[in-house]
Structure prediction request, 426 residues.
Amino acid sequence: MLDIKWIRDNPAKLDEALAKRGAPPAAIDLIKLDERRRDHLKILQDLQGRRNEASKEIGKAKGSGDNARADVLIEEVGKLKAEIQDGEEIERRIDADLEDVLARIPNIPFDDVPVGRDEADNVEIRRVGEPPRFAFEAKEHFELGEALGMMEFEQAAKISGSRFTILKGQLARLERALGQFMLDLHTGEHGYAETAVPLLVRDEALFGTNQLPKFAEDLFHTTEGRWLIPTAEVPLTNLVRERTLDAAELPLRVTALTPCFRSEAGAAGRDQRGMLRQHQFYKVELVSITDEDSSVEEHERMTACAEEVLKRLGLAYRVVTLCTGDMGFGARMTYDIEVWLPGQGTYREISSCSVCGDFQARRMNARYKVAGEKAQRFVHTLNGSGVAVGRALIAVMENYQNEDGSITVPEALRPYMGGIEKLAVV
Prediction:
């Protein structure tokens, strides 16, 4: 959420930033709503001031024996009290209207984020590793998995519907191995603290990480009012919700391996075959909480941590900066890491690392204090996939496939596979 004071002082900058994102201008309407709120608060303060003044006059009138004057003042205080109660209700409605509008305004991109409409305008930063060359036609992951008898879609659909997958045997173990490998890397070498978090959250938690109110249709909602997490970013970032940290505690780095649940409401017709786009999948999430001066540097660090996963697995990838039109709602800048998939002959996203500034912190009221300073500051938040386990499984299957349909296990994963070096039909 943006600071309304900043919007009052920088209306042109807000509308310029929104234009870069392909969104309509909003400054005038926001400022009008804020002026209405401020004007109403002035009226309410005047009423409260007069009520306090009249209450004191009642005591004086009674003390001097002027009961008639006291009765008039008592009647006035009663009317003022009713007006104040009505005014406070109006204040709550205006506040709610302003908060609702502010909650739907996306974050301000950094000045160096490329301006564009969609993924075609993203800018490649670097490529790492060489895609493998096969002496045979590369297959896609679902062809490999089904031929091995370790991946089922038809039975999953009978159980749960479309966009679900059943993994069996060594392939199920390989998925588990990937998650454990990533956790060990990020906790053992990158300084993230492993955290077990709830998979069901309240409205407030999703509002804090800007999934609500704008993206409700992308989520699964329970009958008792909770939501299944779309990513562990939600509970991990909300660890600092309504807290004030000491600057010495920062940066705070946490990670979790969790199932994630997404309705994929906007993905009709996309990636229908295989397990690239699922309602349920595993992901290792990275979240950093920093002070306002360290978030840009932390963004580079987090992206490097996610890249290290692919380097250890020997997978070719590229890093792109998302343009303003393709960037997430709460981000000021996002790097996407795209892994090479031989079966598709292209790079596909496997991680997004975003720096959000104080956008989420304002929604969560998450602050920090610097020694010797009276004023508190909002923390800065960052999140990234470290990485998506299902997509890493797809990448390993396709990049390590053999002509006979078997899949070689990358060396980094063999300790987690009990020494198994190859997945093959038993």
About this structure: The first strand starts at residue 123 and ends at 128. The two ends are 55 Å apart (CA to CA).
